[in-house]
Amino acid sequence: MTTSITHCARLYYIHDPMCSWCWGFRPAWQQLRANLPAEIELVSRVGGLAPDSDQPMDPALREQLQATWKRIMQQIPGTEFNFEFWSRNTPRRSTYPACRAVISARQMNNLDAQMTLAIQQAYYLQARNPSDLEVLADCAHSIGLERDAFIQHMTSPQLEQDFDHELQQVRALGVNSFPSLLLEQGNTRWDIPLRYTSAQAMLEDINQLLGIG
Q1: pLDDT tens digits for 112-143?
Q2: Which end of the chain is more exposed for a tag (fewer CB within 10 A), N or C?
Protein backbone atom coordinates (compact mmCIF):
# COMPACT_ATOMS: atom_id res chain seq x y z
CA MET A 1 0.00 0.00 0.00
CA THR A 2 2.78 2.40 0.89
CA THR A 3 4.57 1.75 -2.40
CA SER A 4 1.43 2.44 -4.45
CA ILE A 5 0.80 5.65 -2.54
CA THR A 6 4.30 7.01 -3.02
CA HIS A 7 4.97 5.62 -6.48
CA CYS A 8 3.66 8.66 -8.33
CA ALA A 9 4.81 11.22 -5.75
CA ARG A 10 7.33 13.85 -6.77
CA LEU A 11 9.20 16.34 -4.62
CA TYR A 12 10.37 19.50 -6.35
CA TYR A 13 13.29 21.43 -4.90
CA ILE A 14 13.36 24.92 -6.42
CA HIS A 15 16.50 26.89 -5.73
CA ASP A 16 19.04 29.36 -7.03
CA PRO A 17 22.75 28.61 -6.64
CA MET A 18 23.39 32.23 -5.60
CA CYS A 19 20.50 32.41 -3.13
CA SER A 20 21.91 32.87 0.38
CA TRP A 21 18.89 31.23 2.04
CA CYS A 22 19.44 28.19 -0.21
CA TRP A 23 23.00 28.02 1.12
CA GLY A 24 21.68 28.12 4.67
CA PHE A 25 19.10 25.46 3.82
CA ARG A 26 21.64 23.08 2.32
CA PRO A 27 22.37 20.94 5.43
CA ALA A 28 18.67 20.39 6.15
CA TRP A 29 18.00 19.64 2.48
CA GLN A 30 20.81 17.09 2.32
CA GLN A 31 19.50 15.36 5.42
CA LEU A 32 15.95 15.36 4.09
CA ARG A 33 17.06 13.88 0.76
CA ALA A 34 18.94 11.11 2.54
CA ASN A 35 15.86 10.05 4.49
CA LEU A 36 13.07 10.35 1.93
CA PRO A 37 11.27 7.16 0.87
CA ALA A 38 12.98 5.79 -2.23
CA GLU A 39 9.70 5.81 -4.17
CA ILE A 40 9.50 9.62 -4.12
CA GLU A 41 10.98 11.13 -7.28
CA LEU A 42 13.25 14.10 -6.60
CA VAL A 43 13.22 16.93 -9.14
CA SER A 44 15.66 19.81 -8.71
CA ARG A 45 15.03 23.00 -10.68
CA VAL A 46 16.66 26.42 -10.75
CA GLY A 47 14.37 29.36 -10.23
CA GLY A 48 16.36 32.27 -11.65
CA LEU A 49 16.61 34.84 -8.90
CA ALA A 50 18.10 37.71 -10.90
CA PRO A 51 18.44 38.25 -14.69
CA ASP A 52 21.66 38.93 -16.58
CA SER A 53 23.24 42.27 -15.76
CA ASP A 54 26.60 43.97 -16.27
CA GLN A 55 25.72 46.81 -13.90
CA PRO A 56 27.39 47.06 -10.49
CA MET A 57 25.06 46.29 -7.64
CA ASP A 58 23.39 49.27 -6.00
CA PRO A 59 25.06 50.17 -2.67
CA ALA A 60 21.75 49.88 -0.82
CA LEU A 61 21.26 46.34 -2.12
CA ARG A 62 24.83 45.44 -1.17
CA GLU A 63 24.09 46.50 2.40
CA GLN A 64 20.78 44.65 2.38
CA LEU A 65 22.38 41.39 1.25
CA GLN A 66 25.16 41.64 3.82
CA ALA A 67 22.51 42.13 6.49
CA THR A 68 20.72 39.05 5.14
CA TRP A 69 23.90 37.02 5.45
CA LYS A 70 24.25 38.08 9.08
CA ARG A 71 20.61 37.21 9.78
CA ILE A 72 21.05 33.75 8.24
CA MET A 73 24.10 33.12 10.41
CA GLN A 74 22.00 33.98 13.47
CA GLN A 75 18.95 31.93 12.47
CA ILE A 76 20.79 28.90 11.05
CA PRO A 77 23.72 28.10 13.35
CA GLY A 78 26.80 26.84 11.55
CA THR A 79 26.19 28.69 8.28
CA GLU A 80 29.36 30.40 7.05
CA PHE A 81 29.83 33.44 4.83
CA ASN A 82 33.04 35.11 3.70
CA PHE A 83 32.30 38.83 3.86
CA GLU A 84 35.50 39.60 1.95
CA PHE A 85 33.38 38.97 -1.13
CA TRP A 86 32.09 42.52 -0.88
CA SER A 87 35.53 44.12 -0.94
CA ARG A 88 37.22 41.76 -3.42
CA ASN A 89 34.57 41.93 -6.15
CA THR A 90 32.29 44.27 -8.02
CA PRO A 91 29.02 42.47 -7.28
CA ARG A 92 26.27 42.35 -9.87
CA ARG A 93 22.64 41.40 -9.32
CA SER A 94 22.90 38.53 -11.82
CA THR A 95 22.27 34.88 -10.96
CA TYR A 96 21.14 33.63 -14.38
CA PRO A 97 24.70 32.63 -15.40
CA ALA A 98 25.02 30.42 -12.32
CA CYS A 99 21.63 28.88 -13.07
CA ARG A 100 22.71 28.09 -16.62
CA ALA A 101 25.86 26.50 -15.23
CA VAL A 102 23.80 24.17 -13.05
CA ILE A 103 21.65 23.10 -16.00
CA SER A 104 24.76 22.54 -18.11
CA ALA A 105 26.32 20.33 -15.45
CA ARG A 106 23.06 18.37 -15.24
CA GLN A 107 22.89 17.86 -19.00
CA MET A 108 26.58 17.10 -19.47
CA ASN A 109 27.05 14.52 -16.73
CA ASN A 110 24.17 14.65 -14.22
CA LEU A 111 26.30 16.81 -11.92
CA ASP A 112 23.86 19.60 -11.09
CA ALA A 113 24.02 19.00 -7.33
CA GLN A 114 27.82 19.01 -7.43
CA MET A 115 27.84 22.17 -9.53
CA THR A 116 25.45 23.92 -7.16
CA LEU A 117 27.74 23.14 -4.23
CA ALA A 118 30.84 24.27 -6.15
CA ILE A 119 29.16 27.60 -6.95
CA GLN A 120 28.01 28.07 -3.37
CA GLN A 121 31.47 27.34 -2.00
CA ALA A 122 33.10 29.71 -4.49
CA TYR A 123 30.63 32.47 -3.60
CA TYR A 124 30.09 32.13 0.12
CA LEU A 125 33.39 30.63 1.31
CA GLN A 126 36.01 31.67 -1.28
CA ALA A 127 34.64 35.19 -1.93
CA ARG A 128 34.55 34.66 -5.70
CA ASN A 129 31.85 35.98 -8.01
CA PRO A 130 29.73 33.29 -9.76
CA SER A 131 28.18 35.95 -11.97
CA ASP A 132 31.47 35.71 -13.90
CA LEU A 133 31.88 33.03 -16.57
CA GLU A 134 35.51 32.37 -15.58
CA VAL A 135 34.48 31.52 -12.03
CA LEU A 136 31.75 29.19 -13.29
CA ALA A 137 34.25 27.50 -15.62
CA ASP A 138 36.56 26.96 -12.65
CA CYS A 139 33.67 25.43 -10.72
CA ALA A 140 32.91 23.11 -13.64
CA HIS A 141 36.54 22.04 -13.84
CA SER A 142 36.59 21.35 -10.10
CA ILE A 143 33.79 18.78 -10.46
CA GLY A 144 35.41 17.01 -13.40
CA LEU A 145 33.92 18.76 -16.43
CA GLU A 146 36.16 19.81 -19.31
CA ARG A 147 36.44 23.58 -19.12
CA ASP A 148 36.11 24.55 -22.80
CA ALA A 149 33.34 22.04 -23.45
CA PHE A 150 31.44 23.41 -20.46
CA ILE A 151 31.74 27.01 -21.64
CA GLN A 152 30.59 26.05 -25.12
CA HIS A 153 27.64 24.11 -23.71
CA MET A 154 26.39 26.72 -21.23
CA THR A 155 26.63 29.57 -23.73
CA SER A 156 24.84 27.70 -26.53
CA PRO A 157 21.45 28.78 -27.95
CA GLN A 158 20.01 25.37 -27.02
CA LEU A 159 20.97 25.81 -23.37
CA GLU A 160 19.30 29.23 -23.37
CA GLN A 161 16.10 27.62 -24.64
CA ASP A 162 16.32 24.92 -21.99
CA PHE A 163 16.89 27.50 -19.28
CA ASP A 164 13.88 29.51 -20.43
CA HIS A 165 11.78 26.33 -20.41
CA GLU A 166 12.89 25.56 -16.86
CA LEU A 167 11.97 29.06 -15.69
CA GLN A 168 8.53 28.65 -17.27
CA GLN A 169 8.11 25.31 -15.53
CA VAL A 170 8.95 26.85 -12.16
CA ARG A 171 6.48 29.69 -12.75
CA ALA A 172 3.81 27.16 -13.76
CA LEU A 173 4.33 25.45 -10.41
CA GLY A 174 3.50 28.75 -8.72
CA VAL A 175 6.88 29.06 -7.05
CA ASN A 176 8.15 32.60 -6.48
CA SER A 177 10.58 32.29 -3.57
CA PHE A 178 13.75 30.29 -3.06
CA PRO A 179 14.32 27.77 -1.74
CA SER A 180 10.94 26.09 -2.09
CA LEU A 181 9.75 22.52 -1.65
CA LEU A 182 6.68 21.35 -3.52
CA LEU A 183 5.18 17.87 -3.15
CA GLU A 184 3.12 16.59 -6.07
CA GLN A 185 0.94 13.51 -6.27
CA GLY A 186 -1.37 13.12 -9.24
CA ASN A 187 -3.15 16.44 -9.69
CA THR A 188 -2.52 17.57 -6.11
CA ARG A 189 0.35 19.77 -4.95
CA TRP A 190 1.36 20.85 -1.48
CA ASP A 191 3.86 23.47 -0.39
CA ILE A 192 6.16 21.95 2.23
CA PRO A 193 6.99 24.49 4.95
CA LEU A 194 10.74 24.98 5.13
CA ARG A 195 12.40 24.03 8.39
CA TYR A 196 15.94 25.32 8.14
CA THR A 197 17.10 23.46 11.23
CA SER A 198 14.87 20.37 11.18
CA ALA A 199 14.85 17.94 8.30
CA GLN A 200 12.86 15.54 10.46
CA ALA A 201 9.93 17.94 10.71
CA MET A 202 9.80 18.29 6.91
CA LEU A 203 10.02 14.53 6.51
CA GLU A 204 7.11 14.07 8.89
CA ASP A 205 5.06 16.61 6.93
CA ILE A 206 5.73 14.75 3.68
CA ASN A 207 4.96 11.34 5.16
CA GLN A 208 1.72 12.63 6.65
CA LEU A 209 0.56 14.11 3.32
CA LEU A 210 1.29 10.84 1.52
CA GLY A 211 -0.23 8.67 4.23
CA ILE A 212 3.05 6.97 5.09
CA GLY A 213 3.49 5.55 8.55
Answers
A1: 999 999 999 999 999 999 999 999 999 999 99
A2: N
